[in-house]
Amino acid sequence: MSISLDITQDRKALDRSNIRRVVISSWIGNTIEFYDFLLYGLASALVFGKIFFPTISPLAAMLASFATFGVGFIARPLGGIFFGHMGDTLGRKYTLMITLGGMGVATFLIGCLPTWAQIGVWAPILLVLLRFIQGFLVGGEWGGAMLMVVESAPANRRGLLGAIPQTGGFSGQLLATGIFALITLLPEDQLMSWGWRIPFMLSFALVLVGLYMRRRLDETPVFKAVQQREQLNPTTEPGEKASSPVVEVVRHQWRSILLIMVLRFAESVPFFMATVFAVSYATSQLGVNKQTMLNVVMTTCVLAFPMHAFFGMLSDKVGRRPIYIFGALCAAAMAFPFFWLLESGSFVLMVLGYILLINIAHNSINAVQPAFFTELFGPKVRYSGASIGAQLGAIVAGGFTPFIAKGLTALDHDDWSYVATYVVIAALVAAYAAWRAPETSRRDLTLDH
Asked: Could you cite one Gene Ontology molecular function of this protein (predicted)?
């Protein structure tokens, strides 16, 4: 009981400026991480097939390029396990400093890579290796950044404050897309020789800003309370080795991990279909100008900020489950209309399609994930559980979506109907999982579940 009182007092002591610093620093860090990660997705769709896989057919090159995009997702659960253990034992702040710095180095090195024309097969091998490292580090970033905010927020604002740094994925996408939109103005030969490298190398400067912000953060009140409780009432005998948080969460809360994996289908499949596959499909098959598609994506990213705040705030009032179910059903309903609007070639209609699928369906889901996923676990295994579940879900639901979508269109002369059907099924499965999930918005984060 005394620990619960202590944590309540700690939260009251966190004034608005301190909470604001936690939210902003997590948003900046998340922006940088996703700038690095999503930049690769754009390059996969527009550049990498030609410069790293030039000796195979255009279809095979595109599939190979999207496969390297998926490699990063394979590494993410490994990063979730490694950094989840570190975050639950050594602390959130220390772990996040490592993930951010390492991500920046890996992205910078991608910008330095020689191409197939320069070193042959070693070029795609090194590309895959750096992509794997990227994914490994991102696997530990998302869970920690979300925990920093949710564990520091007042109980009645966890949804809203957790949703704000979640927009880092869109600010990162906006930044990556904006820079790519500028470099695509270069002549084709300059774009393919050196222009594509600029966005990757710029990551180094962004990382320095993020590291400065993260260095100023304190550990969360929840993590401090767990440490204090362990000191007062040790759960292990002297000399006895404590069980790993990863082992504990897999042993006792595997259902919550599985739940998160399924829930991610309604968020990841539509997002990566629209922001990676659809960009490539529209430019290569529908004849839409690259700059037009990049502008469409950028418009969607800008609108994501108010939509996340709205849905996050709404989840604090009505709960996480109703918002998640609403978003998943919207994603299922909008899959086919999205492609109809894309086929129009009209900028206005394509923006409308992206607003309906991304800004309403996806954003409502994405906004509640930080609070929802965090609240499913107890404080001693929270970093591990949320990270492992989210990153395992990212493999099956997100990383290979562009690859699967490209393969599905190849089945019937570039027909997109199979892709839309895939989105519908993924969203409906997630809606059912959300319906069966527990409501978590009123849980005490200091207590084990």
From this structure: transmembrane transporter activity
User: Would you state the structure tokens that stand for residue 268, as one six-digit string?
Assistant: 């990841």
Please, which residues have CB within 8 angstroms of residue 330's CB and are 6 or more apart in sequence? Answer: 356, 360, 361, 364
As a whole number, mean pLDDT of residues 374-399 equals 85
How far is the C-alpha of 19 from the C-alpha of 33, rounded, in Å? Answer: 21
**Residue 345 confidence (pLDDT) above 90:** no
Per-residue CA distances from 7 to 15, 102, 445 (Å): 14, 32, 10
C-alpha distance from residue 222 to each of 28, 180, 327, 447 (Å): 22, 40, 30, 9
Helices then strands, counting H and E runs in the chain, come out as 24, 0
Give the right CATH number for 12-223+244-436 from 3.40.50.300, 3.40.50.2000, 3.20.20.450, 1.20.1250.20.
1.20.1250.20
Most distant pair of Cα atoms in the chain: their distance: 69
* pLDDT of 301 over the 70 cut: yes
The pLDDT tens digits of the residues spanning 182-227 come to: 887 888 788 778 888 888 888 888 788 878 877 777 777 777 777 7
Tell me which residue of 372, 374, 398, 369 sits closest to 308, measured CA to CA: 369
Backbone angles phi and psi of 9, in degrees to 5? -65, -40
Task: Return the structure tokens found at 63.
Answer: 């599939």
Q: How confident is the model at residue 1 (pLDDT cuts 50, 70, 90)?
A: very low
Which amino acid is it at 406? Answer: K
Relative orientation angle of helices 122-150 and 363-375, to the nearest 10 degrees: 70
Please report, for the chain, the start and end positions of each structural domain, with discontinuous segments joined by +. 12-223+244-436
Taking phi first (over 0 means left), then psi (-120 to 50 degrees means alpha), and beta for anything else, what does residue 120 get? left
Query: What is the structure's pLDDT at 238?
Result: 55
